[in-house]
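Researcher: Here's the sequence for the chain we discussed earlier.
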Amino acid sequence: MSLITKEALYGWCKIAYDDLESRPDRKAPFRLCRDSAEMGQIMARELVDEIRTRNEQGEPLKGLARAPVTRLHAFAGSRNPAD
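Model: Thanks. This is the structure I predict for it:
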């Protein structure tokens, strides 16, 4: 893992939030959300989709989720574990 210098950190902090998504020099995917609730919904939907894909392929999925499964289903827009 590489460390970021103080100068590089300050450089990134100066970038307007609405310019971050299109930065060609970013090293990780970036998605701008309205708020933490929207981010939670996106993350839950992606987790549910990944679980479904792995199950269909017969592959295990190892990971940690901080929220109870019932809350993840609520975030993903469904309370039905089959969805």
